[in-house]
Amino acid sequence: MIPYGRQSVDEEDVAAVSSVLRSAWLTTGPAVEEFESELARQVGAAQCVSVTSGTAALHCAYTAGAIGPGDEVITPPLTFVATQAAAAALGAKIKFADVEPDTGNIDPAAAAALVTPQTRAIVAVDYAGHPAELDDLRSIAREHGILLIEDAAHSIGSCYRGRPVGSIADLTTFSFFPTKNITTGEGGAVATADPTLAQRARLFRNHGLVRDSKAQRYPDEGPWHQEVHDFGLNYRLPDILAALGLSQLDRMAEFKRRRAEIFGLYAALLGGIDDLALPTVRDHVDPMWHLFPLRVPASERARIFQSLRKRGIGVQVNYMPAYWHPVFEDLGYKRGTCPNAEAYYREEISLPMFPGLRDDEVHRVADAVVSSLGRPGAS
Question: Given a cut of 60, is residue 379 above it in pLDDT?
Fold first, then answer.
């Protein structure tokens, strides 16, 4: 079976983790600080706050943005449900904006139409690694005095109009799950240029503990004293995982190059075939591809998916519109809300995409796709 995704771990990664295991620190130590510093440098952010998962990063970002009960958060539905769940857990109301038919990213016009006085944030999801139209979304956010949050779980290493993802939105969240563009095993991060937002995220990821005596209410309690002003959680990334992430950052350019080669080979092998729609690449973006989202006739998607799985191709579907989940259905959300997103979902199949995928395996996947359509092979 050729898997849909797979981590790319080499001996330098193993050595980096082993070094931490032999050190005095397993968590909350120097590897975390080094990882956050290098991550901030590579994504063009003033500060990065590492956490235990991409979902934790979203939770920290929403909390840093003071999102709570009564606030509205505008998101696209074509994403993993964590994008919405982390805001809903804080009491926010989710409003779904439809996506652009070609990229699957949030449509700025659809987002703008949903803004009300209760709106606190617009969330852009960089579907498959292709950045959303961040300048347009930022303009809308500035006009209404709300936050732009970028869910960049797919897009670390991508650039938008020459700027790295992580340097544009008020808050950007990353995921370092094994199938993502770099991995820490499990992990995530929040990037921002705003020191106040960064501090709120740091406090929330560590139980809300205030250790600076200048900020404490009762600083004379003693040198051991720490106090909680607002509730937080334990979302600290261990040094073991941070060391893996630091090593992976050294190879991010290599990963991006190889993912681009695989994307180009798929495009060459599958381009121009009737009934197949390839991913869009806009001229002003430089994606680091996380997915290769192929679109097939909706009426044939299930059959093609099953055919590929039987041929040993580990395809996936990304994603069912979030409001189709029963948890949203039970809150009154209806199917049909975002027709572009629903049409995209009904046609989408994600082909295997990871740096270790060999050219001959790409050919095998493409041949299987073409055969599943009842056509001669692609090679």
Answer: no
Residue 139 backbone phi and psi in degrees, to 5: -65, -40
Nearest to 124 by CA among 116, 110, 316: 110
* Closest-CA residue to 294 (of 188, 202, 372, 194): 372
256 is catalytic: no
List Cβ neighbours of 63 (8 Å cut-off, separation of 6 or more): 90, 200, 201, 204, 232
Helices 359-372 and 301-310, interaxial angle, to 10°?
A: 130
| Listed residue (141, 135, 181, 147) closest to 58, CA to CA | 147
Peptide bond into 319 cis (omega under 30): yes
User: Please, are residues 76 and 125 in contact by the beta-carbon 8 Å criterion?
Assistant: yes
What separation, in Å, do the N-terminal and C-terminal C-alpha atoms of the chain show? 19
DSSP state of 127: G
Catalytic residue among 93, 180, 310, 334: 180
What are the helix (H) ranges across 66-122? 82-88, 108-114
What DSSP character marks residue 109? H
Residue 365: enclosing H or E segment and its boundaries?
A: helix 359-372
pTM, full prediction: 0.97
- Name the pLDDT band for 374 (thresholds 50, 70, 90): confident
293-314 core/surface letters (b: 16 or more CB in 10 A; e: else): bbbbeeeebeebbebbeebebb
120 with 71: CB under 8 angstroms? yes
3-class state of residue 250 by DSSP: coil
Residue 313 confidence (pLDDT) = 98
Please give the radius of gyration of the chain, using alpha carbons only, rounded to the nearest integer.
21
What is the average pLDDT value for the chain, to the nearest integer?
97
Does the structure show a pLDDT above 80 at 174?
Answer: yes
Which residues are bridge partners to 106 per DSSP?
Answer: 99
Query: Count of H helices and E strands in the chain?
Result: 13, 14
**C-alpha span between 188 and 344 (Å, rounded):** 27
Before 160, cis peptide (omega within 30)?
A: no
| 138, 144, 146, 151 alpha-carbon torsion, rounded to 10° | -40
Count of alpha carbons within 13 angstroms of residue 336, beta-carbon side = 2
